[in-house]
């Protein structure tokens, strides 16, 4: 089962918004939000809350891809998120997430008994490639026990 399939099966909001996992690797996660009238805002594009969820979901997918092998000793948790809406989004949108720190550095902190934090940046784009939003999510790996 892929990370996308696992998240779609276990996270109800992913299913509610019909998010599609296009790519999920430790280097990059790409998700799409189809154009759906039920989730439109007052100008006919995706609601800000739907775009937030899309971007946060992309950030979570890359965290699981990068640190899934650490789940026996730590739980990934979002610490904070900041989003900026840059342009009007109409139609389907994609979110592309990238890690802001090397995986080895984060794992080294965990090995030292610390609770590492790391940013994940996400670009939200329209079909024409224009960036409609940018998000940064700060994640941590909370050691178990």
Structure commentary:
- 30% of the residues lie in helices and 36% in strands.
- It is α+β, with helices and mostly antiparallel strands and 145 residues long.
- The longest helix has 20 residues, at 48-67.
Helix content: 25-40%
Question: What gross morphology would you assign?
Answer: elongated
Quaternary status of these chains?
Answer: single chain
**Beta-strand fraction estimate:** 35-45%
Primary descriptors:
single chain, 6-stranded antiparallel sheet, 6 strands
Topology:
Elements (H helix, E strand, L loop, with lengths): L2 H8 L1 H6 L2 E5 L4 E5 L14 H20 L6 E12 L7 E7 L3 H9 L5 E10 L4 E13 L2
Antiparallel strand pairs: 1-2, 2-4, 3-6, 4-5, 5-6
Short note summarizing the structure:
The chain is of the alpha+beta class and 145 residues long. The protein is 30% helix and 36% strand.
